[in-house]
Amino acid sequence: RSSRVVQIQSQMSERAVELLGLPQDRPCLLLDVGCGSGLSGDYISEEGHYWIGMDISPAMLDVAVEREVEGDLLLADVGHGIPFRPGMFDGCISISAVQWLCNADKKSHSPPKRLYRFFSTLYTALARGSRAVLQLYPENSEQLELITAQAMRAGFTGGMVVDYPNSAKAKKFFLCLFVGTSGTLPKGLGTECASEEQHQAKFTNERTRFRNTKGKSVKKSRDWILEKKERRRRQGKEVRADTKYTGRKRRPHF
């Protein structure tokens, strides 16, 4: 994958996790719908949370396994529902996946039914008071209305958070859903009221990573690598021994 695609995916994952409003003081278990090769999961792991990823593509999940992601992976079509016990997850994110449920890939597929099955079983699998944040690329307003209507029918409250609504390139849709409580919908980034969005993270090319402000290690630093290796050891995985070269940058070869 191109580094640009990876960068956009990572930014959207960070934004989705931010919109979940997770508690700062404890690790959570999150569901990643349409997890693909596990890029969103990497960010969830970095933030100290645990995750389970679902995807319909065996090839993408093979890539995730090769990349040794820290989450558990499940090959499944979310249009058939979310097969987990009630109240299991503290939150759910999905990056660029839910709009595919609007397509009828087989004769037997009914998009409204598949969306309702997905949302109703997702609602059950989420703990009360938690959120689901689904980033999507709707083809048109009808798709957006169909997705939102089925989510509300399944019991969710909430609505659409649109980041940078005035930019053709940067505009992003996040369906922010609440379970069992109707929270206040977060404001989209890049909306007019500058004074009100001071407390929200700004997205620029040189973004300061959130975790620096939370006192966590900078990504790819030596400390970050050592923490990641330690987490893997605790999970019983084989990890190379730490040496003085761990986390050192290689010199460029001429």
Explain this structure to me?
The protein is an alpha/beta fold. The protein has 2 domains: 3-179, Vaccinia Virus protein VP39 (Rossmann fold, 3-Layer(aba) Sandwich); 216-249, no CATH class. It contains 7 helices and 7 strands. It has a 7-stranded mixed beta sheet with strand order 3-2-1-4-5-7-6, sandwiched between helices. Helix 4 (111-125) crosses helix 5. The longest helix is centred in the first third of the chain and has 18 residues, at 3-20. It is globular. The two termini are 25 Å apart. Keywords: Cytoplasm, Methyltransferase, Nucleus, S-adenosyl-L-methionine, Transferase.
CATH superfamily of the largest domain: Vaccinia Virus protein VP39
What distance separates the N and C termini? 25 Å
- Helical fraction: 25-40%
Please describe the biggest sheet, giving its number of strands, its sense, and whether it closes into a barrel: 7 strands, mixed
Number of helices: 7
How are the strands of the biggest sheet laid out side by side? 3-2-1-4-5-7-6
The counted number of beta strands is 7
Mean pLDDT: 84
Report the top-level CATH class of the largest domain: Alpha Beta
| Number of structurally distinct domains | 2
CATH architecture of the largest domain: 3-Layer(aba) Sandwich
* Anisotropy-based shape: globular
User: Which spans of ≥5 residues are poorly predicted at pLDDT below 50?
Assistant: 193-214
Structural class: alpha/beta
Q: What is the element string, with H for helices and E for strands? A: HEHEHEEHEHEEHH
Supply Rg: 19 Å
Strand content: 15-25%
CATH third-level topology of the largest domain: Rossmann fold
GO biological process, one term: rRNA (guanine-N7)-methylation
Biased composition (Basic and acidic residues): 220-229, 236-245
Region (Disordered): 211-254
Subunit structure: Heterodimer with TRMT112; this heterodimerization is necessary for the metabolic stability and activity of the catalytic subunit BUD23. Interacts with GRIP1.
